[in-house]
Amino acid sequence: MHISRPHSLQLLTLHLLALSAAQYDPVKDFCRRFGHQSAVVDNKLYVDGGSVNWKPFTESSQNYTNTFFLYSDLSGEMHGMPPQYATLSKNATVPSVSGGVLWADAVNKRLYLFGGDHRQAPPPARATLYGYDILHDQWDASAPADTITPTSYGAGVSVAGRGEAYYYGGWASNASAAGWGPGPPRASSRLVRYAMDANAWSSLAGPDAVARADGAMVYIPAGGAGMLVYLGGSADLHGNGTAAPQPLDEVFLYDIAGARWYAQATSGHTPTARRRFCGGATWAQDQSSYNIYIYGGAGFPPNTTGYDDIHILTIPSFQWIRGADSAGGNTSKPFPKSMMTCNVVNGGQMLVVGGAFADTNATAGMCDDAEDAGGQHNVALGESDVWAAYQPALTTYAVPPDIRAAVGGQATGGATVTAPATGFDAPGLSVLMTRTAAVATRSPTRSVSAPSTELAPPAASGLSVGGIAGIAAGGAVLVVGVLAAGCCCVIRHRQKHYRGPRQTGPEYRRPRRCRLWRITRTRDRRRSRPCHCRLARPSSCRPTACTSSTSRCSSNTNAATGGPATPTTPTTSLRRPSAAETLMPTLTPSLLPPSPLRLATHCAPDTLASAAEDPSPVDPRSPWVKQQQQTPSTPPRTPIRSPRRSSGAASGSRGPLPGSPYFATAPLLPPVEFPPYQPA
């Protein structure tokens, strides 16, 4: 076996990466998470990338890139929040980015990772879309059109019913796009559209020429084919990376069917301008009102602390309503956060995952892992007490009392206020608000009937331990592989060093290489062949010894000559090798043979001398023959040691250690033949 140097280095690199990743349990050691991407498909919340802090959290704690791909089982509940697992695959070719988007395709059971900042390595030379197959737990990659420039911290949303995904704005920099150069980041004013089934890309115009980033965008089923609503964030007014606040007293709506943008002023308790917050949308059962919930966010100077509050924008009246848990005015509660994600689950709940604390006096040194929730927080969208435990059985949305007080109607709908207090800013928007989207049922483009067995949670609690155990096992296998490669290289080097000039001719017989494994004798399927050795059926093999008359292995030395059978104690245990022994034997000095070794490992010590007298031709120039000419007596029975020898004599004469496998220092003894297997 020959391992090339580049391959060995690659194995070593993978091993080091596995050991580095295995230092932390992504569930048990979790402290904080921010800048990640998340999406929901089939009652599973997927979380990818971003930055993470591990326990214990101190003032000197570092921000680590999160290389784990996690999911939460939304059909279960543990400690008030969905249980989280880290058992999904993610190979090294898929980057772990911050500020990207994870588009969900619930019809074809896929996820798409787009955009984001690359922290571990430079971005790829060309923009890349990474797809995750949920059914088969594997990733792939494709290249968008050349006109697409990936950005970070833009606003993304997917519409699975239409098979489309959108991404508006974001910051372009040398961390998000290759070849950007040393200049400052600049925001984008473009709307990127990706058609999932056709794998087609489009770069569309934004609502105006202003470039924006750090905002949020949601989908509502209004108009002919649905609408996108963008709100908040930063405005790059001068194209030089300077972030100005985008006020929340104005929102932008994109009509998908008409491919047109609309701007609309808002009223009510307008939140203070903020960036890198998160939001989600839900609606009444009769779609008489669409309600957008936003949470948290970072502030702009002079208020750089941020926010820990909930606000609701109800459409079509375009009124801002302060959430029941929010403080009065524009002040914030004591735990401001930003760079988190929001995902609405079945219309009735919104899971807020992670977020970076502003590290005020109330949050300094605090981990976002209350009750081992993994940074997950649940908003009960239809209740007055919005922060509540997650309820897997809650699958409907009831309009809460504070919204009904503003728009009228009941919990199921029937809103009576269906227009802004000052009217619509565009006549066409008023018409669209009276329509509900008619989206045809989309059929999958592949077979999706196979269950996703890879995502089945383990039976016991603490499921992340299984994921870490798998990583540790993989690291152990890599260690064994690297050691095996090194052992093989050493053996090959010694074989080349001690092998004499190549012999040819009919009288020359190439020496057989000795296997370093514990061997057992099994029956060959073809009766005409002698019994061969392999790692199988150890119970079917008997202790063997070698005789000089036949050079064959028999049940004992006397049985080969017809005498009474005398039990022979084997020098090697006939037990089945363990997994570690199967991969590679223990690398002790007694197991490093010179090459080639011609003696079977099961030969008893008492027969070594007779076996050494076999008249089979050997290389007259070998060191062993010269040793026999100088010392005609039987060579001492010594364990094999390092190949360093003094001229004309073997190094060391000490006998084998008790209990250790016995090897002789006769490098060119004839091969041992085995008779056909005879069942007992």
Please provide a written account of the structure.
- There is one protein chain.
- With 680 residues, the protein is an alpha+beta fold.
- Helix content is 13%, strand content 24%.
- A 5-stranded mixed β-sheet has the order 27-31-30-29-28, covered by helices on one side. Strands 2-3-6-7 form a 4-stranded antiparallel β-sheet, with no helix packed on it.
- The radius of gyration is 36 Å and the shape is globular.
- The two termini are 37 Å apart.
- Mean pLDDT is 75; it is low at 1-21, 456-470 and 500-680.
- Residues 1-22 form the signal peptide.
- The chain crosses the membrane at residues 468-491.
- This is Kelch repeat-containing protein.
Topology (elements, then pairings):
Blueprint: H1 5-21, E1 30-34, E2 37-41, E3 44-48, E4 51-54, E5 64-65, E6 69-73, E7 84-85, E8 97-98, E9 101-105, E10 110-114, E11 117-118, E12 129-133, E13 138-142, E14 155-159, E15 164-168, E16 171-172, E17 186-187, E18 190-195, E19 200-205, E20 211-213, E21 216-220, E22 227-231, E23 234-236, E24 244-245, E25 250-255, E26 260-265, E27 267-268, E28 278-283, E29 290-297, E30 307-315, E31 319-322, E32 337-338, E33 341-345, E34 349-353, E35 356-357, E36 376-380, H2 401-407, H3 427-432, H4 464-498, E37 520-522, E38 532-534, E39 545-546, E40 553-554, H5 557-560, H6 579-583, H7 608-612, H8 623-630
Parallel strand pairs: 27-31
Antiparallel strand pairs: 1-4, 2-3, 3-6, 4-5, 6-7, 8-11, 9-10, 10-12, 12-13, 14-15, 15-18, 16-17, 18-19, 20-23, 21-22, 22-25, 23-24, 25-26, 28-29, 29-30, 30-31, 32-35, 33-34, 34-36, 37-38, 39-40
